[in-house]
Amino acid sequence: MSGEKTEKPTPQKLKKAREEGQIGKTPDLGAWAGIAAASVLVPMTLEKAVEKSREALMRVPDVMTDPDVGTALNMFRDGLLGSAYAVAPLAVSMMLIGIAGSGAQGGIHVATKLLMPKFSRLNPLQGFKRIVGMQALWEGVKALVKTLVLGAVLYFQIKDLIPSLMTAGNLPLAVLLDMVKDATIALIRTAALAGLVMAAADYFVVKMRTMKQLKMSKQEVKEEYKKTEGDPHVKGQIRARQHAMARNRMMSDVPKADVVLVNPTHVAVALRYEPEKGAPRVIAKGQGNVAQKIRDLATENRIPMIQDVPLARALYGSCEIGTEIPAEFYGAVAKVLAFVMSLKSRGSAAGTHRLAA
Q: Which region ranges are annotated with the description Disordered (predicted)?
């Protein structure tokens, strides 16, 4: 059936889908990548922040001993710059990870059409389909898998941590805090790794579903081809008109020719020689009906026609209209032009002639 959507979406269809925000993406990929990066960057950020705070606090007694507005402002400024220096790597890294996560899923596209109001989005039937359709089923399965996986990660991490805490009553508080910190970071990293695996699976499913939704019927592909490449029938008509115009321009130059070489009936090549412009040029050529038209114009305008089968065929096959003849034909064409000049001097150039041996 011509209406069955069996064809892959064309580049134009994909471009339109991107403009409308219909892209196979999952937000989970960027989110879990951000969590994984945060598990590395947050401890480093906190260490730098604590170091900068310690440096600022060490300057407080000096300010209290010798109160000065300028000194206090300098300390406040240094504290802000230190905080910014500590947080900047985390902020920049999270931004870059978000951009990279979006770019890895088919590039970054601004869906401008989503900003325009569209009443079809308020269609309750479409909303109901989203609630009870296959997409809703997949979202439910995905949420269940997330819960089970993250629950398993949490269980195995805490299972190893609790016995250590139960037997750590005599350990210093700093050691206990380090144990909890290490366990928490390990938990976050393991969860992020599991989340990335689930996000990859989600991306695959979303991409497949989106490409299925964008499939086109054979008729739609044909119609889009007509819009982008043009209707083949129209293009054929345009080419035919262009060829006709070019042939008409060529025929209008035939009266300017100095000689027409013929074959004697199948091929005709019109030459014009202007010494100040270089070698003789082919101003018209043709075979069959076009050759007959060239001969008729030559007869009407009393242009000499020279019957030279090998030369006429060679020039027809090797020269384009408007180009000079190749150097290997200079001698043969020179003989033809000299013969034509001799005919004109006797007043008998018009008509068809054979080159004297």
A: 1-21
The pTM score is 0.42
Residue 357 pLDDT > 60: no
**Percent of the chain with pLDDT strictly greater than 70:** 67
Q: Domain extents for the chain?
A: 23-213, 253-354
At the topology level of CATH, where does 253-354 sit? Answer: name from scop (3.40.1690)
Of 85-99, 118-132, 133-147, minimum mean pLDDT range: 118-132
- pLDDT attached to residue 268: 92
